[in-house]
Design brief:
The chain is an alpha+beta fold and 256 residues long. The chain has ten helices and five strands; from the N terminus they run H-H-E-E-H-H-H-E-H-H-E-H-E-H-H.
Length: 256
Amino acid sequence: MIDPADEFEFFFDKPWSDGLPVVPPTEERIARMLAGTSRGPDEPVGEIPPALEAASVRDIAVHAVMAGCLPEYLPVVLAGAGAMLEGPFNINGIQATMHAVAPLMIVNGPYAEKIGINGGLGCFGPGFRVNATIGRAIRLILLNLGAGIPGVTSMSTFSQPSRFTFCIRENEEESPWPPLSESLGHRPGEDAVTLAAVENPQLVFDDTSRTASRYLIAVADAMAHLGNWNNWTRSDLVVALAPQHAEICAADGLSK
């Protein structure tokens, strides 16, 4: 039995926390969370590397509670957990690497808009519960079920702040192009979660360019400046454009 006066310290001591206080996952809270999905609590989700702990829907729900999610967020957490276990994503390598990459969740579709995932102003920063807690749930799953423990199995030299939480929605309403999910083969209007292993966002500031060719010079430079990972090895990139820059590129006839 956990003393209510010490419940937060209990999770720090285990340690079952990311370094911030967690919501204690009582049976009542877990039951409320599970009401957010039609999937059965014992349904397997997969084995979380590197510990290869077998995770069920209930296990994912426990960590969604701990992260501060509402029940309606659980389907997105489950989708993210399932996506990161797909072989090509190589979550085992991401967990153990000396690099500082973290899983970025990009959510598309009407459900993301319904629950309020932010894809606009400030979407990578604080102040948005749904973004913060969904991304945090994924990190707690990787820490507790996957045993991605810093200095033990996770050897990231400096790590990075986005390993706390990293979840956004694509701003489909202001984009001049079809959404990312359609580019990857999903039907128009279909709910989808895409994961990418990335470093922290790097700002490319340009408030003067009025043509795509001029603006994209700055973007290309940021992709391969001295000391950048892409100077050492080939890798995929995620480019997030503000609406004004997306419109400039589209007006010059560029697709994604």
